[in-house]
Structures are given as structure tokens and as C-alpha cells.
Amino acid sequence: MNKNTNDNKKIIIDFDGTLAASFDLFIEAMRAAHIKYSFRNVEDDEIETFRHYSAWQILKFLGLPIYQVPTVTRYIRDYMTAQIKALPLASHWQETLQTLGLDYELVILSSNSNQNIQTFLDQHELTYFSEIVSDVGLFGKVKAMRKLIKDNCWLNKDVFYIGDEIRDIKAAKKAKISSIAVTWGYNAEQALINHQPDHVISNSNTLIEILQCAEFKSKKQ
């Protein structure tokens, strides 16, 4: 658990694709699920196009009915559990988290399971997070964000959400918090830019500059 000294800024970080470099494993798991549940497969030459789709567009592309989403999500999550220890840390998070953990409260909010996330954190010796909000539904991030903010008595203006998907940007906007999109995850950079997050970064170290700038502006107001 981190011991933050800055009572203002809170950083909520997505797990899959943002903190963990899990996109390749996700594709592998989804292909296994396609065999079991008989929805459309994603071919190698379709992956780049796939990365430009929103969550709803992905479901349509796969021909996956909404009622089947929870079952398939659980299957994919369980598939990934067996290989969670082998997942690499994305970008340059080790150094970035070490710096941010000194001054900011860090929380993970994810659709993945608490077990998978905690195993990954232990594997990479990441002890900077004060809370893990896990098992969030595919379209349940807005509700989870609002609850997290309310339960902790945070001010929306002090909260940043970092994610790699279009749905992360949309959720942050609906929750009325700042969104930071990362380009190394599931959705392609241009797809993220098209949905107008507050910031787009290609290296986690850039976060420090963004937060310092936000803190400076806040003090001037």
C-alpha cells in the first residue's frame, strides 16, 4: 500500500492493456473462447482493424450476443489466470509508479479478477496501490468510478483515470473525471484520439509531467 503525501490528486489505473501488457494473451484467450462458444474468430490480418473498434463494435464484429458476454468474459479471465505470472509490465511503469507512489493515491479499477491482479502485482513487486476495484462489468466502469469517488469523498476535479480503451475514455467523461489514454494497449492511438481524452501518452513517464502541470494549475486557481 502506498503512503501518499498529496491529499489532492488521485490516480485510477486500468489493469489489462494499461498496467499489464496483456493484449496478445487476450487475443489468444478470445480465440480459445471462439472455439468453445462459436462466435467469430479474429484473424491475424484483422487485429489492427479490431484495435480501432469500441466495445460495442467488437461485440457486433464477433457476433457475440450481449447475454453471452458475462459467460465469455469469465472464460477469458479464467484462461488468462493460468498465465498471469508470465505477463510483462507495460511501458515503464516500474519507475513511474515508484515516483507517483510517493505523492499520489493510486488505485486499480478493472474488469479482471482480484486474484489475477494481486498475483500480477506480487509477481512484479508493485506495492503502491491503496485499493483494487475488480470484477467490474464490461460496461460497468462509470458506476464503479462514481462509487469509488463517493466512498472516498474525493473531488472529481482531483481524479485521473488512465486506460487503454475507448470505453475507458467514455467512462471517465461520464464520471466527470480527467481521462488519460495510453497508446500501448488494446485500442489504437488514432481510435483513442478520435474520442478526445484529456491527454494521450505513449510512455508512462509522461504521467509525471501531466500531473505536475495539473497540480501547478490547481494552485494558481
Automatic annotation (TrEMBL):
Keyword Hydrolase: yes
GO annotation, cellular component aspect: cytosol
Single GO BP term: DNA repair
Keywords: Hydrolase
UniProt superkingdom: Bacteria
InterPro entries: HAD-like_hydrolase_sf, HAD-like_sf, HAD-SF_hydro_IA, HAD_2, HAD_sf, PGP-like_dom2
Name of the protein this chain belongs to: Haloacid dehalogenase-like hydrolase family protein
